## 1
Amino acid sequence: MEKVALVATKRDKSGKEFVKKLRKQNQIPAVVYGAGIEPVSLTLEHHEFSRALRSQGGGSKLINLKVTGVKLGEKTVIIKAIQYHPVTDAIYHVDFQAVSLTEKIRVKVPLHETGESPGVSKGGIIDRVHHELEVECLPTAIPERIEISISNLDFGHAIHVKDIAFPEGVVSVLTPDEVIFTVKAPKEEKAPEPTPGEAIEPEVIKKGKEEVDEDGNPIKDVKAAGAPVAKAQPAAKEAKDAKGGGKESKKE
């Protein structure tokens, strides 16, 4: 497996104020520990470490670490942890782990999906439960990344650890039934609720009783609620008006 070369300097001092001064000088405090060595505090040049980090593909490759100022020589290491500033995202501290090429180790490897998901084509969203996987293997067998096909990932489907084809000699630390990817349906937009003080349209209230005139006769032609209703004339009065032409005769 290809190694990335990196030079570090042994650091004798420590403390909050000292490492703060190092960072202002564009240097990174670090430490190396692991197989066959006592922990050693280090100082890294920021641009050199950034170059090594880019060339190794995110932390999965082996690093040939050469430490000056101590009889440590060159050690094969992996990046165990990187601490970042919570606001500026600047690298604050690096942990290196020295490894033996003949002993298996645990390391986290990034995941990379391939293909097109039918669920995504329908408007779904991939839920990436894991962006990387912790695996166990020899240092010489560490993969740069693990590729996962999502070509059959539809709504209601999921990809589990047991569905992944791992390279030879690489075993997942997670259980076979652990979910890696799934597809969620897009969330439906809810109608906005009226804000306090906002006018609400009144509902039309249906009449529970049928309108009747003063004699108890039903009024069939009822207008909408709120409009004035003309009352029908009694039948006897209608007949009298019709006979008299609608006018009373005047006595002389």
## 2
Amino acid sequence: MTSRTAAVLVEPVQGEAGILVPPPGYLAGARTACDDAGALLIADEIQSGLARTGELLALDHEDVRADLYTLGKALGGGILPVSAVVGRRAVLGVLRPGEHGSTFGGNPLACAVGRAVITLLASGEFQSRSRELGAHLHTRLRTLVGHGVAQVTGRGLWAGVHIASGGPTGRVAAEALLARGVLCKETHATTLRIAPPLVITRDELDIALDAITDVLTH
């Protein structure tokens, strides 16, 4: 990084890569590097943000604050597609009325849904659910390591199940889970991405975990 570096864009948890969490201190180091270079730190929290990892934002686990955040997915509460860029006033303030436009920007219904989601998140209930159920999720998944699973990664109600060599491909495993009524996305041919809705119950989570166990260990 040099004085010519404008910004660093990071995913606090890499989603498409397999729900990979960076080592402790990595994100704080990125913040320091940006400060030293006079660059912006931009966090892509479209997948990791809004209680998914057990905190409002995944960067909160490291007590790091970005200059800009990109948000989406959960912001629509599973009802409408809506996304947002959130940031410091000094950064966003460079855009003046009439200087930037968006075809669907400011959709009133989508904005109303987004505001309702933010109100729900303010209570901390869903962050707590993600922490508690996420702990249960990861505890059960880790019992599969060495039994068809090479590694389990992730945070909160979000996990990457990395299938061991010799096991089914991610696509085959995902289709087997579909036959059992569990929707699960595969990535890189060897990883299952587990991202249940934050309103899931412990019993429902166990049904899905039983199916995953059956598919990967038999």
## 3
Amino acid sequence: MTDSYAATQERMPELERRIIDDPGSFRVLTGERPTGSLHLGHHFGTIRERVRLQALGVETFIILADYQVITDRDTAANVADHVRGAVLDYLAAGLDPERTTIFTHSAVPALNQLLLPFLSLVSEAELHRNPTVKAEHAASGRALSGLLLTYPVHQAADILFCKGNLVPVGKDNLPHVEITRTIARRFNERYGEVFPEPEAMVTETPEIPGLDGRKMSKSYGNAIALSMSEDETADAVRRTVTDSDRVITYDPEGRPGVSGLLSTAALCTGSTPEAVAERLGDAGSGALKAFTTDAVNAFLSGHRARRAELAADPGLVDRVLREGNVRANAIAEATLAEVRDHMGMGYANG
């Protein structure tokens, strides 16, 4: 994996030039599981990049993978609220549903049907080797479900249903792009040319620590949601565990809470954790928490105002999802028909 990541990084400048020179030749698929509210990690990690690609003229599809919520949990409770909240955050951040297709897994049957032929193209051993499958299985503490085991193939269907050829990913998700490339190549070799082999696009996005110094995550409860109010943000920062040393220093290993706050403040002010620490000096954790709260609230003020304005239109989210689902369905059905034809099952298309 290290070699793959290094090789991918080396290709990034040339790939970026190709995107700028001919954005219309790329189609991006990206998205997330709606397991909670979107937070600052999503903003810095993925949403900004989607807005940038949209501005360049790259056709973008964003999937809210509601079916994948149950890969590692027993309930789909609150998924509808998380989906709606994500759409509001997307729009508030600058994603335009006229240029970016926003849709949900469960509303596109033809996409999910691609899972069947794709499963015939991979072995059980290949699925068990996938790092995400292994990590999620270990974290769940339960038996490996069939849905979690086939999660990488489902993601391949997400990417290939629209013939996506560019996938923005973090380092940890590179194996998903690799197995997608493998599935596309094996299908083309077995049945004839249908799918592109998508390229991974790894950006220089910093790893976003949560308030406690661990990776910012909904499951850790250490995230600042984009939908939080100013008071909710202040409360989340206030609850962060720090220490009694008044001198503020950036030490992720020794002072995770202090360092998590410094990183958050630095991202929101366009600075570095070290510079923020130097600015605060020996002012203590109270001053650090106040500075971080002000930095986050100032950074998110515009997003919150746009979000509130969008939320005032009660039918907006439904319209965005309905139009995105219609668009995604048309593409998925066309791709599935092409797959059937190449597999000699065109009789099913009528």
